[in-house]
Every structure is written in structure tokens, then in C-alpha cells.
């Protein structure tokens, strides 16, 4: 099994680096929210100045928190990974295992589709193993959802979390520049998941 400590440590480092003053914490949160929105529109080449304008802070404030584009993209990327893992934990107690799994896969697909080259950009700039660690981290979080769905007979017994992440990522990347965007992701994901149930 792959070691996920690198991703966890990376995410924790971002958290620990956050300023402690209330106004600085607010600015940090606003910058991350603005960056995620701008990345969804412009991809990994998002303008730092535009992020600052969207967050309604000065460029100097942005640079204090994120000295360059890679630092900003990395913070957004790892925050979303953490959010997806937290969502998987929450959904693991949902009554309908199949619905819970599909809800998580849809959230993953929409995020990957909206990231628009961010993961590839980070893989080049950071450790070559970073993408693999993030993939493993997500697969570990999703595994209880997959096992619950399989135990309920809602998913084939031989389906793994890694399998589903690979399929969903492929759908998201294939529709990255599709004019219908999220709607096309939903259509293809629905098409694929019809084949997840065991054959009768």
C-alpha cells in the first residue's frame, strides 16, 4: 500500500502556515475561495492579480500568503483533496450505500473537471510523486464507500476505489473543454455507473 503521509504532511503544512490573526485568516480564506473560483474559469494559468481582485484584497496581501502561483495552486489543490476526503467520511454513514458512493464520485468528477490543468501543473512543479500520493489518499478515503456498496450488492465485488477514481478522472479530463461542462460529466458518469451493478 502506498504511503499517504506525504500528502497529509503537505496539507498539514498549509494549515500550520496560516496566519493566526483574525483578519489574516479571513484574507487567507477569501483568497483560497477566490482562487478556486478563478481556476474553474481560467485553469492553472489563473492571474494572481485577478485572484486578489476577486478576493477584494491587495496584491501585496496575496503575495504575503502565496509568494507565487504554484504556492496558491498547491493550497487550493490540497484543500480540495481534504474536502473530498471529509465528504467521503460523511457519506460513509448514509443509508443508501450506492447513492452515497455515486454522490462522492460525482463530486470528484466535477472538481477534476473544474480544476483545468491544475493537477498537471502541480505535478511538474512539485515532487513527481505528489499526484500519486493524492490519488492514494483519495482512494483510501473512498474505499469504505466502495466496500459498503459492494456489501449491499450495489457495486460489483471486484470494483476497487482505485478503479473508480481512474474512470472518473478519465471522464473529467475528457470533458475538460466540453461546452456543456458539468452536464456532460453527469451524463457520462451516469452512463458508466449503469455498468457498476453486478450482472444478473
Automatic annotation (TrEMBL):
Residues 1-17 have a biased composition (Low complexity). InterPro entries: Homeodomain-like_sf (IPR009057), HTH-type_TetR-like_transc_reg (IPR050109), HTH_TetR (IPR001647), Tet_transcr_reg_TetR-rel_C_sf (IPR036271), TetR_SbtR-like_C (IPR049445). PROSITE patterns: HTH_TETR_2. Residues 47-66 bind DNA. Keywords: DNA-binding, Transcription, Transcription regulation. It holds the Pfam family TetR_N. Residues 1-23 are annotated as: Disordered. It comes from Streptomyces bingchenggensis (strain BCW-1). Transmembrane segments: none annotated. Residues 25-84 form the HTH tetR-type domain. The keyword Transferase does not apply. Signal peptide: none annotated. This is TetR family transcriptional regulator. GO terms for molecular function: DNA-binding transcription factor activity; transcription cis-regulatory region binding.
Amino acid at each position: 500500500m502506498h504511503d499517504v503521509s506525504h500528502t497529509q504532511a503537505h496539507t498539514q503544512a498549509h494549515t500550520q502556515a496560516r496566519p493566526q490573526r483574525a483578519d489574516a485568516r479571513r484574507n487567507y480564506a477569501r483568497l483560497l475561495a477566490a482562487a478556486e473560483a478563478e481556476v474553474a474559469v481560467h485553469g492553472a494559468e489563473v492571474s494572481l492579480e485577478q485572484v486578489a481582485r476577486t478576493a477584494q484584497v491587495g496584491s501585496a496581501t496575496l503575495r504575503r500568503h502565496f509568494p507565487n502561483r504554484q504556492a496558491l495552486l498547491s493550497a487550493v489543490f490540497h484543500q480540495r483533496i481534504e474536502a473530498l476526503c471529509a465528504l467521503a467520511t460523511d457519506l460513509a454513514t448514509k443509508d443508501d450505500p450506492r447513492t452515497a458512493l455515486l454522490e462522492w464520485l460525482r463530486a470528484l468528477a466535477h472538481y477534476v473537471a473544474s480544476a483545468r490543468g491544475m493537477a498537471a501543473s502541480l505535478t511538474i512543479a512539485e515532487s513527481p510523486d505528489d499526484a500519486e500520493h493524492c490519488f492514494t489518499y483519495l482512494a483510501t478515503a473512498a474505499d469504505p464507500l466502495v466496500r459498503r456498496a459492494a456489501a449491499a450488492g450495489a457495486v460489483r465485488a471486484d470494483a476497487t476505489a482505485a478503479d473508480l477514481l481512474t474512470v472518473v478522472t478519465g471522464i473529467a479530463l475528457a470533458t475538460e473543454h466540453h461546452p456543456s461542462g458539468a452536464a456532460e460529466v453527469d451524463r457520462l458518469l451516469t452512463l458508466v455507473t449503469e455498468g457498476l451493478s453486478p450482472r444478473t
